[in-house]
Amino acid sequence: MILRSLALAAGLLAAGTGSALAQQKSAYDCHGLATADNLPVLEGSDGFFYRLNLNMRTYHPLSAAAAKTVGTLSRVLAERGTKLIYVPIPTKSLAMPEHLPPEAADYGYDKALAQAGYKAFLSRLADANVTAIDTVAAMNTLPDDRQPFIGLDFHWSPDGAHSVAKAIADTIHQTPSLDDMKTTKIELTSTGTKPVESALRRHIQKFCRDGLPVPRTERFKATEKGGGSGDAGDIFAADSAGPPIALVGTSMSAEKMFSFEDALSYETQAQVANYSVTGGNQFGAITSYLLSEDFRENKPRVLIWENPIYNNLGGFGERPLRELIAAAGADCTPLKTANPDPNVLTADLPANSWTPESYLGVDTGRANGVRATLKFSNDDGLTGSTTIQRSERVGPTRWFYEYARPLWRKDYTHVRVELDQPAEKDATLSTCTLKGSQT
Predict the structure, then answer these.
(1) Could you give the C-alpha distances from 215 to 70, 253, 256, in angstroms and in order?
(2) Which residues on neighbouring strands pair with residue 222, listed in sequence order?
(3) Domain boundary among 305, 326, 347
(4) How far apart are CA 370 and CA 396, in angstroms?
(5) What is the pLDDT of residues 160-174, one digit of tens each?
(6) Could you tell me if 298 and 341 lie in one domain?
(7) Which residues cross the membrane (predicted)?
(8) For 74-123, how does the pLDDT look when each residue is reduced to its tens digit (9 = 90+)?
């Protein structure tokens, strides 16, 4: 009986594999795309291609703990006058399931299950009091002749970006606390249709006998026409102040070919400062921005955080989010700091204020470092250490923050911080705290 069952299972597996490999006739005489070693791709209808590993997912992880921590970040930002709006960019399969080939089901894709998982993702953020944009609903408002994603690329199209920008603007306009946000008369004009440099297209072409068309998109430019909203009465009234909206995100936001920044400025009728980083993944841009002088000196009224839904917010543990929370609004008390060597800072830890919910703040005096190693010790020589390492995409920062709880011991009395670059004369170590709950 067992052998018979195994034989049946093997037969079903072979049948399923055969179905998956025997794809519908390719429009470009492509072969072996779905089994490519480095980047398998499915060819859909009407010239749309789907990255198999990402687009066949029906669930995108967001733990309750990660959602709650983003909720804490949102709360801390709000306490300092900044509204966080999270923008999860969907996969192409979520936004455009109608172009998927029938073989997608053989790879595990289930449209109803994927949509249910997406709604659960948004619900978890809502439960954590995080304002998030339903980007799929926004893209579904496009007319039939406008597509939210580029067929031969994984990025969204300017139309898709514009639909999401409008949804963000609607959210801002429906937020009473932002009624006095400074606005500016802005027009949006087309700058013409231009080709898109697509690494995905170049990859696909290797598997196709026929030439693939070069994708083209219509670009747009937002132009300020002056005549702001008058007596806005906010912190951006000064000449040295920055725009009321800050945008942090990935290549979806950073690359001009998608015109997201311009569409956002037009739909909100407000200036937008774009700090997005191509290749920065979920934390590159927001980490770089919240740890910058720009954020400290000119906090925006709105912080828009764009992140593709497949970039797991809990994928690197809690440290990235914890550091963002501290950078957003921790109150820090400087410690008596020594600088025994150019790259070393030391201080004694205060017994009355060094708790598991504390942060150790490191101010190197200048944005020149990408690594800080923190070594805690007690009077008996017991030590615990951790290293904060900035990625190449984030670049050097002046500040580093480490949440105490993972390494905390009641008997730690001293901290030594080793930097990759010399500290400035005014460099300091601090203990930092937040109001309210950490989760």
Answers:
(1) 36, 18, 15
(2) 188
(3) 326
(4) 5
(5) 999 999 999 999 999
(6) no
(7) none
(8) 999 999 999 999 999 999 999 999 999 999 999 999 999 999 999 999 99
